[in-house]
């Protein structure tokens, strides 16, 4: 099911991938949390990294950022091997890993000052302006003086995003960036990601909110149980799932027989009607056949399955935590 | 998040300004200064300093309103009344048993285990801060913390002592008298010697701090280490072990108050301190450099 990404034309060969891993594996004891991962994230893409809880997304991100040592395999970030070249490349990478984490008794601004002070590549002279710009960008400027412990979950999440934006980045790795945000905040993060992407920043975003990923991602990768089960551009990944015809009718049994005779596959009853995969049969032929046989068609649709349907069909387990 | 709209055409936030050009990295003390601000700003640490400062004041007042009695350790309390500078020395000998190691243990617990517990460790490392640089910075902040704690005891003791007992000449342990000026230098030397011992203890604490994600566990473990060392040091049957104990020569600072100072035990103490600092510093590095950060 894995579809490799078509390399985009680029004058500099080898630099067209923001993230590339080969056989990346992490074993904790006997269990492989991540198993033979071949990620291909093109530069300039917004890459949605999907998977049920416990499927290995965060472990993958930790390996990419040099926090966890892989058991096997290699990975490169912006052309630099990690973890070996992590010190060189990480200044160009902003990240949000497994939720916000700051010193509770420091203010939001003081927490950002601390992270900025830790960055040897950051210029101390314009530290104040950069911190204010980052706070402003996530809408926290007015509450920057409050202690972090008084922040709501949404504000904490915004502060973590601000920390990732302290200096201009070529790549942003955002693990569940909208966790804890209200619908308004979620929309704002989506806009933020869009505006960053339009500036040329590659965004690698893991999320379980599929509708949100659906709206902002140009590329998708789906993890299940430590393995990558699908990868490619959004249209490629979703194109792999055949469209489904759905008929609402009072006579589901007759309709199901006709659909099967026509050659639709996977015909099954749904509430109020039937559905099946046309598999190349023209929709108008289906409707005509139904009407000729005297089946009253109340509604007829042919559509690609939603990302959620696709996700469940790929990972098999919905949102259950895997082993 | 008003600024999140596409209108936020703030050029600073945009990418590709850095391109792939090599990024210049300058050595900087900003992280160390941030570390010290973090330590100094924490309410618990401020309270701890108050306790450290309260002991010499308590001693000075208690001695002033009662007659001096024989104390344990170097026999300072009985000599206090002759010169105010014996107050900080008495306070150091009292606080070296528990309070000063406890202060180090609390700072060391925060150093790595505390950051891991909060989750801030992963964000520091992805800034990125190299692991060796982070450990060195953390250790430097602990050493400064040790100096800081000792300085508070000495300064509070000196202030209380001079206020209550004046600035007369000091009676040395050898029975001779030295001027107040040279007595000040002796006290500074004592403070430095004590701080070096605490800095060695901080290396042990830093190592323990890399083993756990619970700061309190690291603090308690270092206190157990300290107290076990004191107990072992007081059991004469295992005197062969005493030269290897970190605390064995800690109380030898009294030798600096002889006339002339007696250096043998001081030198032995410094050698043991250095050995502990090197061994546990390397252990901390070996543990931390390759550790999977899953907090």
TrEMBL record, chain A:
All residue ranges annotated as the ABC transporter domain in the record: 19-250
InterPro entries, from UniProt? AAA+_ATPase (IPR003593), ABC_transporter-like_ATP-bd (IPR003439), ABC_transporter-like_CS (IPR017871), P-loop_NTPase (IPR027417)
Classification via PROSITE patterns: ABC_TRANSPORTER_1, ABC_TRANSPORTER_2
Record's signal peptide: none
Q: Which keywords are on file for this protein?
A: ATP-binding, Nucleotide-binding, Transport
Say which domain of life the source belongs to.
Answer: Bacteria
A Gene Ontology molecular-function term? ATP binding
Q: Is ATP-binding set as a keyword in this record?
A: yes
UniProt keyword Cell membrane, yes or no = no
Query: Which family does the similarity line name?
Result: Belongs to the ABC transporter superfamily.
PANTHER family documented for this protein: ABC TRANSPORTER, ATP-BINDING PROTEIN (PTHR43335:SF4)
Q: Under what name is this protein listed?
A: ABC transporter ATP-binding protein
Native source organism of the sequence: Terrabacter aerolatus
User: What are the leading ranks of the lineage?
Assistant: Bacteria, Bacillati, Actinomycetota, Actinomycetes, Micrococcales
From TrEMBL, chain B:
* UniProt GO MF annotations: ABC-type transporter activity
Q: Which organism is it from?
A: Terrabacter aerolatus
Q: Which domain of life is it from?
A: Bacteria
Annotated spans, Disordered: 1-24
Please give an example of a GO cellular component term from this record: plasma membrane
Q: Where are the compositionally biased (Basic and acidic residues) regions?
A: 9-20
Report keywords, A-Z: Membrane, Transmembrane, Transmembrane helix
Transmembrane portions of the chain: 47-65, 85-108, 139-165, 185-208, 215-232, 274-290
Q: What is this protein called?
A: ABC transporter permease
